[in-house]
């Protein structure tokens, strides 16, 4: 006995649902290209910010809890300075920070600092910082550091936002890696930053010890330089 | 023959989905009970607060109920067209939520798991849509015309 054919409406419904599922499957496969890390360093604005090998300009900015953090305070350890457009309206930036935090989890020889403009320190950005207690300082730039470095961009509402940029500074505050981009949807893969830091560490450890004792770099000073727990209202 | 194979596939799909729902549902309920009452596990099963565990426990109960419905669908497919349709809708919504979670950037560390889950849900939804017995699925009314015809023959 042959099976009777199902009603036409049912078949149409099935085809409709299948098309929807097919479309969503295609999105699932292609969404990865929406934003992702890149293994290559980019420099979209060569004139912005300090060049490789130059000293990073001194700054002093408040973090989210109001504590003022200066570059001098961070000196002595390698510093990863990440300028971010927003932790509010920019999903790629959130993804970038979470990847960065995962790469640096448990490392005490590196300090991470996130810099955003004052207008981008919105309640939603503060919520992100509170809900993801990452091992970074969240610095709020109200002093014009972003503009001074030439990293000033615009958010979708026209408000000032930093362009996505990453600087790795050695313990003396010299820029050892710079990556400046216009598009936040692609960011520098944390592996590249880790490789730079490893190279930096190798150079430091090659510095000849005096009388067989390895010279203590400024970074070995006993000082609390780990970022505080984010406390926001 | 094709109808029987389709029915078998449908029952397998419904049973596998029911099993998955029940296992996850039980884990969720155990997590809630552990957090709220016993605190047997050294580390909490989920990184959330007490309200989060409350919702996890609730979701666990819902998943167990859904698993029960799917089990009944696996046992009597001809009476369960509605369950298959609802399951397909639930799976599509769950897949969309996972894609949105991926896009939000906040779940970056489990990003590919979200995409894999979404893909599995969508494939399962297509399976439920095409394998489910044709018809309404009202209680006591056979869904397929073949089943209806069989019943009619029996009563003559």
Topology, pairings included?
The complex is a heterodimer of chains A (about 230) and B (about 160).
Chain A: H1 8-30, E1 36-38, E2 60-62, E3 68-70, H2 71-74, E4 78-83, H3 91-103, E5 110-117, H4 123-131, E6 136-141, H5 145-148, E7 152-154, E8 160-162, E9 165-169, E10 175-180, E11 186-188, H6 190-206
Parallel strand pairs in A: 1-11, 4-5, 5-6
Antiparallel strand pairs in A: 2-3, 4-9, 7-8, 9-10
Chain B: H1 2-38, H2 50-75, H3 81-104, H4 111-131, H5 145-155
Helix pairs in contact in B: 1-2, 1-4, 2-3, 3-4
Structural write-up:
The complex is a heterodimer of chains A (233) and B (156). Chain A is built from six helices and eleven strands. Chain A has helices at residues 8-30, 71-74, 91-103, 123-131, 145-148, 190-206, and strands at residues 36-38, 60-62, 68-70, 78-83, 110-117, 136-141, 152-154, 160-162, 165-169, 175-180, 186-188. Chain B has one domain (2-142). Chain B is mainly alpha-helical and 156 residues long. The model of chain B is unreliable at 136-156 (pLDDT under 50). Chain B contains five helices and no strands. Chain A binds chain B through residues 1, 3-4, 6-7, 10, 13-14, 17-18, 20-21, 24-25, 27-29, 31-32, 34-35, 90-95, 98-99, 102, 128, 132, and chain B through 2-3, 88, 92, 95-96, 99, 102-106, 108-109, 111, 115, 118-119, 122-123, 125-126, 129-130, 134, 144-146, 149.
Overall geometry of chain B comes to globular
Please tell me how large the radius of gyration of chain B is: 19 Å
- Main sheet specs of chain B: none
Strand tally of chain A is: 11
Rg of Cα set of chain A:
23 Å
Order of helices and strands of chain A: HEEEHEHEHEHEEEEEH
Please give the most extensive interface between any two protein chains, plus how many residues each contributes: A-B, 32 and 29 residues
| Overall pLDDT score of chain B | 84
The helix/strand class of chain B is mainly alpha
Low-pLDDT stretches of chain B are 136-156
Domain unit count of chain B: 1
């Amino acid at each position: 006995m042959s099976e009777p054919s199902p009603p036409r409406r049912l078949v149409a419904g099935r085809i409709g649902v299948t098309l929807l599922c097919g479309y969503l499957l295609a999105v699932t496969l292609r969404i990865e290209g929406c934003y992702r890390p890149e293994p290559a360093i980019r420099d979209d604005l060569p004139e912005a910010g300090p060049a490789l090998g130059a000293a990073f300009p001194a700054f002093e900015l408040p973090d989210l809890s109001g504590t003022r953090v200066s570059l001098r305070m961070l000196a002595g350890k390698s510093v990863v300075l990440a300028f971010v457009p927003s932790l509010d309206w920019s999903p790629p930036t959130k993804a970038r920070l979470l990847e960065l935090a995962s790469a640096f989890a448990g490392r005490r020889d590196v300090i991470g600092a996130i810099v955003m403009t004052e207008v981008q320190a919105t309640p939603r950005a503060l919520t992100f910082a509170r809900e993801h207690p990452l091992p970074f300082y969240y610095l709020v730039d109200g002093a014009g550091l972003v503009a001074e470095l030439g990293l000033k961009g615009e958010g979708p509402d026209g408000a000032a936002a930093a362009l996505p940029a990453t600087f790795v500074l050695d313990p003396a505050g010299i820029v050892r890696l710079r990556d400046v981009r216009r598009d936040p949807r692609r960011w520098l893969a944390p592996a590249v930053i880790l490789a730079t830091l490893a190279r930096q560490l190798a150079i430091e450890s090659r510095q000849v010890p005096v009388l067989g004792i390895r010279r203590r770099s400024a970074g070995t000073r006993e000082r609390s330089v780990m970022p505080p727990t984010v406390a926001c209202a | 023959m094709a109808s029987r194979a389709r029915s078998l596939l449908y029952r397998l799909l419904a049973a596998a989905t029911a099993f998955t729902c029940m296992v996850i549902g039980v884990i969720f309920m155990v997590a809630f009970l552990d957090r709220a009452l016993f605190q047997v596990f050294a580390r909490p099963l989920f990184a959330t607060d007490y309200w989060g565990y409350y919702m996890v426990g609730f979701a666990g109960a819902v998943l167990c109920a859904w698993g029960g419905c799917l089990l009944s669908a696996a046992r009597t497919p001809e009476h369960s067209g509605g369950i298959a349709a609802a399951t397909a809708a639930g799976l599509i919504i769950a897949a969309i939520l996972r894609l949105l979670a991926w896009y939000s950037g906040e779940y970056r560390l489990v990003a590919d798991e979200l995409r894999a889950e979404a893909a599995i849900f969508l494939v399962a939804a297509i399976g439920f849509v095409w394998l489910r017995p044709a018809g309404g699925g009202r209680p006591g009314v056979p869904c397929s015309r073949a089943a209806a015809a069989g019943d009619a023959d029996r009563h003559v």
